[in-house]
Amino acid sequence: MTGPVTSPAARRIATDGVDGVELAAYQWGASTAPPVVLVHGYPDTSAVWRPVAERLADRFHVTAFDVRGAGASHRPRGLRAYRMSRLEADLAAVLDAVSPDRPVHLVGHDWGSIHSWESVTGTRLAGRIASFTSISGPCLDHVGHLIRARLRPRHPDLPKLLWQAVRSWYIAYFHVPLLPALTWRALGHRWRAFLTGSQGVPGHTPYPAPTLARDAVTGTALYRANMLPRLLRPRDRPATVPVQLIIPTRDFCVTPVLSYGVERWTGRIERHPIDAGHWVQLSHPEEVASRIAEFAHRVEGGSRRDPDHTARPI
User: Fold this and answer.
1) Crossing angle of helices 212-232 and 111-120, rounded to 10°
2) Which residue in 74, 78, 94, 167 has the fewest CB atoms around it within 10 Å?
3) pLDDT of res. 247
């Protein structure tokens, strides 16, 4: 599937939250088409979705926005401003602005997926989300339950969990005062070389945004405001919509073990491993766009897949 290469229409969306944050949003495709909303992760901006959005624009009304603290959106101060409830309020404002009368097909990557799970498993946006595609961003509550169930001697998944803990060293680092900011300001200019050199991102990709270092410093608040509370005190959070997991099997940040057992929390789920690294939407935009489109069309048409193919862990 290859859609037309288009220039996105930009707009600003004011949230209804207590801090009055304004979000920068970009749209592709006809407003009458089924709506797709793309939510980026850390330390990205909406630009990370452009190759996928361009490939969806011939059949969907696509919106990607800079989350608070990133890109052209406002940057509120303090950890409270980056809690899940504020992020969910931002998503609600985006849905009100771009698709007030029709449920959207929500897609999240990395932290965009993590905080989208909050809405997919909650009640605030009930009826506003038609489907959810999650890429490299598990529900923190689900992970908390996963750790409790498997973090015991001789459990077969324990080595994988321990390896994931090693891969997640940066989370602890982001909790250290000052050091993350100093690191990003010193090394941020090498980020593009890292992505094109080891992550399979094409050199012509218009990414990262020029605000990368500032976005990365601000975005550490996401980790400090949300990680420990959710992992240490996980809630029961069943998903209320069909879920698709796109799992990059060479992801150095989020290994497949973090998706184990998610069937417990979902009524309908599909798993699609892709031989790719963390930024799969940049390295494999055609395949990611195809997965999003096919899943959205199945949901729109009310079709279901054989459960033998939808709930198979890897």
Assistant:
1) 40
2) 78
3) 97
